[in-house]
Amino acid sequence: MMARDVGIDIAPDNPALDNVYVDRLLRWVQESSLEKVVILACDDLFDELGTRHPGLSGIYVPNDRVLELARAHSEFLAGVSIHPARKHAIAELERCVAAGAVLLKLLPCVQAVDCNREAYRPFWQRLAELCIPFLAHTGGEFSLPTHRPDLRSPEMLRLPLECGVNVVAAHCGTRALPWHPDYFEEFEAMRRSFPNLYGDIAALSQPLHLRTLEKLRENPERILYGSDYPVVTSVFWSLAKGWINRSVYLQLRAIRNPLERKYQLTKALGFPDNIFTDVWKILRIPRQVRQHAL
After folding, report:
1. What is the CATH number of the domain that holds 67?
2. What are 60-74's pLDDT values in tens digits?
3. Is 0.85 surpassed by the pTM of this model?
């Protein structure tokens, strides 16, 4: 479903898939209203002893791959992924930052990252010193295997926040399937307590997300735009809710570019323009990229 939505028609075992995916994404960005996008690495699962378990996270994207693509294409910014239990995690973080990384991304419930584990404090402190924001999956997950369902709540972000890291709780703790717990109230409580906690609207377009979207529209403070590409953006449910009329619905449905469709839907839902630009306040932008953006 996601492959069709983003315009990819290639077998999953075809060695050309990675390059086809990158070429398609680059084209969508260039044809959209977005100036730049953060592309995300995904580390393997590590246990607390630092042992690597390849394959368990369901997807593996090396840091060097996104760093290489960000160097090659000005539209891309590199979001790296470093499990804090891996050997030399801080050294890898410093290496990636020196190479141009702007963000750290982890999926705690998938990669088994107990962010509140005291042993990880030096890692979070170094992350804060380097001014690198932490994008953390929160809430339900079904695209990738969930190995630690106890790590879905935004509460597991407390230690990085206390260490001074700017944290973005992806999906604001919402559920992915009807039987998942909903952690949005926990997110709201922590947003009030920590001025360095942000949320994003990545993937929030399905019926399960309407209550969350309604509350975020009422209070978009420190809420950032996220596409969750290649996850499919649904326009119909905003029509059913009465947030957009049929004319706007048909206009959005006609947009083939999935990045542009999500961008235009976000604007149609009444989110302020700064939802797209506030991310520049927290990203670690290399000097040459910052000058270009300005």
Report:
1. 3.20.20.140
2. 999 999 999 999 999
3. yes
